[in-house]
What we know:
The chain is mainly α. The chain has a domain of 65 residues. Helix content is 78%, strand content 0%. Helix 3 packs across helix 4.
Amino acid sequence: MSSTNKTGKKLKKILLNKYLIVFVLFTVFVTFFDEHSLVHRWETHRKIVGMEKELKFYQDEIKATKQKKQELQSSKENLEKFAREHYYMKRVTEDIYIVKE
Length: 101
């Protein structure tokens, strides 16, 4: 019984150590409640990763659009094909029929 009592006293002494209490409180504060908490940093990191993916997507879209613009400006036939397909333009002697499925 005395060894259990001694162990209990040592454990109580360690747990009531002022440095340990301050360290635990500091760790909890920094992890959850601080303006620069670990939770806040994790959420910010997640937003940054999402925005980087979005940036990559838009850069690829810009590259594809510039390529299409260059293609349209390079040839009159390509421009005419684009106008016919997207704006249903026609020559004077032609008729256009739109077939919907």
